[in-house]
């Protein structure tokens, strides 16, 4: 993601995609329930696609 792309305003669909990625991370045992809860709250509060990317960056690409 280029620096410019990180500043694009996130849509509701972008937020829902990030939450689905986090749910897969939780179900695979890659996130604890507390981490998942924190990240989901942050996803729904995210204003940019860069913020959403930061929440899923440490999950394997195969989950995306």
UniProtKB/TrEMBL annotation:
<feature type="domain" description="DUF1707">
    <location>
        <begin position="8"/>
        <end position="60"/>
    </location>
</feature>
<feature type="region of interest" description="Disordered">
    <location>
        <begin position="1"/>
        <end position="21"/>
    </location>
</feature>
<feature type="compositionally biased region" description="Basic and acidic residues">
    <location>
        <begin position="1"/>
        <end position="19"/>
    </location>
</feature>
<protein>
    <recommendedName>
        <fullName>DUF1707 domain-containing protein</fullName>
    </recommendedName>
</protein>
<dbReference type="Pfam" id="PF08044">
    <property type="entry name" value="DUF1707"/>
</dbReference>
<dbReference type="InterPro" id="IPR012551">
    <property type="entry name" value="DUF1707_SHOCT-like"/>
</dbReference>
């Amino acid at each position: 993601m280029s620096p410019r792309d990180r500043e694009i305003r996130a849509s509701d669909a972008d937020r829902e995609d990030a939450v689905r990625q986090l749910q897969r991370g939780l179900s695979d045992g890659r996130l604890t329930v507390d981490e998942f809860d924190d990240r989901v709250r942050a996803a729904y509060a995210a204003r940019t696609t860069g913020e959403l990317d930061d929440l899923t960056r440490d999950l394997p690409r195969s989950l995306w």
